[in-house]
Amino acid sequence: MDHQLRVNVARCATARAHLAGAEAMALREQAEVLMKRADAAKRRYWREVAFAQSLTIGRQELAEQLGAEP
Q: What's CA 56's distance to the chain center, in Å?
């Protein structure tokens, strides 16, 4: 392998390394966005569960106040 070929191969390897690094950074950014969305979805889930429970508990308490047996 002559000198010029080595230089060209090294340049190609460097270019591939830069592409892999750029891909890694883009994927990291996408992962951060997805994690924020997942956290928001989890908060919505628990908010809805709490709301549903408050409705159920509220009806039981109202029934007990009106004289129903617990």
A: 31
Residue 67: left (phi > 0), alpha (psi -120 to 50), or beta? Answer: left
pLDDT tens-place string over residues 23-56: 999 999 999 999 999 999 999 998 888 888 777 7
d(CA 41, CA 11): 45
Confidence (pTM): 0.57
Length reported for the chain: 70
Q: H helices of 1-70, where?
A: 3-65
DSSP secondary structure code for residue 68 in this structure: -
Counting beta carbons within 10 angstroms of the beta carbon of residue 5, is it exposed (0 to 12), middle (13 to 18) or buried (19 or more)? Answer: exposed
